[in-house]
Each structure stands twice: as C-alpha cells, then as structure tokens.
Design brief:
Helix 11 crosses helix 12. This protein has an eight-stranded antiparallel beta barrel with strand order 3-4-5-6-7-8-9-10. The chain has an eight-stranded parallel beta barrel with strand order 11-12-18-19-20-21-22-23, surrounded by six helices. It has a two-stranded antiparallel ribbon with strand order 1-2. The protein is globular, with a radius of gyration of 22 Å. With 412 residues, it is an alpha/beta fold. It has two domains: 131 residues; 242 residues, TIM Barrel. The two termini are 27 Å apart.
C-alpha cells in the first residue's frame, strides 16, 4: 500500500498578507455527494461506532482506528501519526456514504477522504437502524490536499465501543486547539467551536476576559498581540478597549472577529452537540456578568431540549473570593483548579488540577466520594494520557489534541 509522502505546503496552505501560514480543511465542493443523501437515525449512527482494523491505508493510519459520532461529525482517530478523520455522512438507498477530510494532528499533512458501506457489507441493515447480519466493512479512498482521493482504504469492524454509565469529557483547549497547530479556524473563535466535535471533543474550554465597557469576550492572553490577532493598532491589554474598538481595529489570526461570550455560548447551544463548556475566567471582574450569562444560556439550552453544562472556572484564590461574594454563586456551577479545601469552600462540582501534579488517585477518589468530578489539564502526549487513564480515574481531560485523547480513551 502506498504511503503518502510529505506534501508541499502550497497544496493546502496559503500565506496571508501578514505572512502567517494557515491551513484550511479541504472539501469536495461541487463534487460532494452528501447533499444527495438522507440523514441517518441515531440508532444507525450508534451501530457504526466501534474499533476498526485497517486493512488498506495502514501505513498512514495504523492498524487500528476508533470510529465515533460526535454531533454531526463521524470521526476516526488513529494512534499512528496522531491522525484523525472528520466526515459527514448519510444514506443513498441502502448504501451509506461518508466524506470529509483527514489530517495528522501534529503536522500539516491533510487530504480528502470518501468512504462507503455497501448494502451487502452492512449498509442495508445499518440504513434501517438494525444490527447488521454480516461483518461491517467500510471501503473508500483518501488523497493529498485538495486533490480527489485515489489511495484505497479498507476498515473492518472489530467490536463496538465500550459503554460507560457516565460520560468521559474530552475538553478542547481554547475551544478546539492552538493557533500554533494551524487549524482551519483561530483559537477561541466561533468557527473552532463548531469543528471541535470533529476533532474528538465533547466539551470545550474557552478563555473569558472583560472589555473596557464591561463586555465578556473570549480571548486567551492579557494583551492583544501578533500571536492571536491581526491589525496594525492592536496592542496592549484587552481591558483598555471597548468592544466596538476591538471590532474596528483587529481580527483573529484567520480573519474572524473576537467573539463575545454571549456569541460563543449561543454557538455552543444552537450549532453544536457539545455537552460542556469550561469558562476559564482570565479577569476576575468578569465573574458577575459571566454568572448572568451562564444562567441565561442554561435557560436557552433547556428551552431547546439541549443538555449542556456551563461551568465557571476558578483558577485563583482571588477568583474564588469574587465568586463567593456574588449573591448568585450558589446556583452557578463552578470548576476549581486549587487545593481540595478551596474546591470544597467554593462547592465546585469539578476539581481541575494540572497534570504536572501527577495522577493523585487518592485525591481523585476523595472528590468522587463527595460527588465531584475531576478534570486534568492540559494533557497532550499519548504517553502521558495513558498514564492518567491507567493510574487514576479522571472524569475528563483538557487537551490541545482531542483526537489523541479520544483514541487513547476509546481504544482501551
């Protein structure tokens, strides 16, 4: 089987006027088949999930991949090359069709992929939401960059995914990943929130700051800087600018506007199936307006039948004090990153220690015995992810690479 070589960056990357490299996700455009398909039922989707052996394309994706539906995305996660595949799918009569793109999470290789499950290889029953009477086989091809896929790939279902009674949260850092990884959307943007599920996440962590006129926005650093924004006059602290000035003077790296927190939460509730948002408070004066927005968007989620948690992150003692001083804090669920005593004082529903503190099984067990969950941050390397999965009992992980955590968690 032919292995894809490192492709010239110009096949799928362009240089912006600021000289920054950006990588876009290739798509089929007018050649897409998805518009011709009918939607799959939830039972059909569930029966397609599982652990698959790779029997064509293994040089690129390894011998084993995890297949998982996250929202509208049918994704594959591989241990080899930290590869992931983000697809959309539907049925054409008794054949199931999927198409989208693949990428290696930690380098720039990407390309189109189109797959199918024929009627005779499980498609007939799956299209009706039934258990297939034959082994499920997925066949198709993948390509380089935006060229049409020609390299064959064959996947055979080995076993369904193990089901656990409570969710495991794979929480995408900065709403999906960092600018340094050259994702198709900027970190902490509305666009990256909408593709986070395709990367393997079922939750996102977003960074909350406050403008001069008191509007919560999502932005990581204290200052405007070339790492995160474009704009000749974009310098100095976010807190020095009104939101109207931010809209006028600068954009995020891929050209998006800096979002308000309200826009981000509406995007989560109305345009994704994400089940959790960690609101990482970067400016303590934002806590009061964030509590109000938390209540507003939890009500919106309930009104549209969405189950989603919006949790206020408390990273410092001063943030805990601000939170406790707010008269509404008792009905505002929180995540606390500090010692267990501070977690208890804030009555946080989640303890969130740094991964550098180690697995800490005894403390994790204490939190579980009190009905609290534990999310470790920020775990990226597969070797460290395995240690925490094997030596602790985390309820979730924050990561820059949701696809790597997804593979290591689901393949177990």
């Amino acid at each position: 089987m032919m292995k894809i070589l490192i492709i010239p960056l110009l096949a799928f990357a362009v240089l912006s006027c600021a000289g920054d490299l950006t990588v876009s996700a290739p798509d089929f455009g007018d050649n897409s088949l998805i518009a011709q398909t009918s939607a799959l039922s939830d039972s059909s989707k569930l029966r397609i999930e599982g652990i698959y052996s790779v029997e064509g394309g293994e040089a690129n994706f390894g011998r084993t991949v995890v297949a998982k539906w996250n929202g509208k995305f049918f994704s594959f996660f591989a241990g080899t090359n930290s590869a992931y595949v983000a697809l959309q799918g539907g049925r054409l009569d008794s054949t199931l069709v999927f198409e989208g793109y693949w990428r290696y999470a930690q380098d720039l290789n990407t390309g189109l992929m189109r797959l199918r499950i024929e009627a005779s290889e499980g498609g007939r029953e799956l299209s009706q939401g039934m258990i297939p009477s034959v082994p499920v086989v997925i066949r198709g091809s993948f390509g380089d960059g935006s060229s049409q896929p020609t390299n064959p790939i064959v996947l055979k279902l080995v076993r369904p995914l193990s089901q656990r009674s409570t969710p495991f949260w794979i929480i995408a850092h900065r709403a999906g990943g960092r600018n340094s990884d050259l994702l198709p959307e900027s970190e902490n943007s509305l666009g990256i929130i909408q593709i986070a599920e395709g990367l393997g996440a079922n939750g996102v962590e977003i960074d909350v700051r406050l403008t001069q006129d008191g509007i919560p926005v999502i932005y990581h650093d204290e200052n405007l800087n070339p790492r995160l924004v474009k704009g000749e006059f974009c310098i100095g602290p976010i807190a020095n600018y009104t939101y109207a000035h931010l809209r006028t003077l600068c954009t995020l790296k891929n050209g998006e506007q800096i979002p308000t927190l309200a826009e981000a939460l509406e995007t989560v509730v109305m345009k994704t199936s994400l089940s959790l948002v960690w609101l990482d408070i970067k400016a303590e004066d934002a806590i009061a307006p964030v509590i109000q927005l938390q209540r507003q968007y939890l009500q919106l989620a309930a009104s549209v039948g969405r189950s989603v948690e919006l949790l206020i992150g408390l990273p410092s003692l001063s943030a805990v004090e601000k939170y406790l001083a707010d008269s509404s804090h008792g009905t505002a669920p929180a995540i606390c990153e500090l010692d267990l005593a501070d977690v208890r004082r804030a009555n946080a529903v989640v303890w969130a220690p740094a991964w550098t503190l180690g697995p800490m099984l005894q403390k994790v067990t204490e939190m579980h015995n009190e009905g609290r969950r534990v999310f470790f941050w920020t775990l990226d390397g597969s070797e460290f992810i395995k240690v925490f999965l094997n030596q602790s009992m985390p309820d979730g992980m924050v990561t820059n690479y949701p696809s790597i955590v997804a593979y290591e968690y689901y393949v177990r």
